[in-house]
Amino acid sequence: MSAAATQQEGEAFRGIASQWLYPFGTAGKIQGDDTPLGAPISGLGQYNATHNYYKSNDLDIPVGTSSFLCYCSAYQGGYNDFTGGAIHPTWPTVEPETTTASAISFSPMKIHDNAETADDKAKAIAAYMTALAKAIPDENKELFNQFINYGHIIPASSSYVEGLKSWLSSEGITLPTKPEGYSDGYPASIKLPDGAAVVQWNSTQEKFNPVLQTTTQANINSLNRFVYPAALWYYANSRIKSSTSNQFDNYSQSWDEVLALHETDNAVVSGGEVSIAVKEPLQYAVGCLELELDAATTIAQRENYQLTGVFISSQYPQKFDFTPNVSVTGECIIYDKTIGDGDSEFTMASTDKKNYTLVFQTPDSKDVRIALEFQNNSGADFNGIETMDLDGHQLKSTIYKGTKFYLVGTIKLQSPTTDDYTKRVFTKHYITHATVKIKDLSQAHPYLPDLLDPRLEVGIVVEPKWIPADPTNVPL
Question: Number of C-alpha atoms within 13 angstroms, CB side, residue 36?
Answer without folding.
Answer: 27
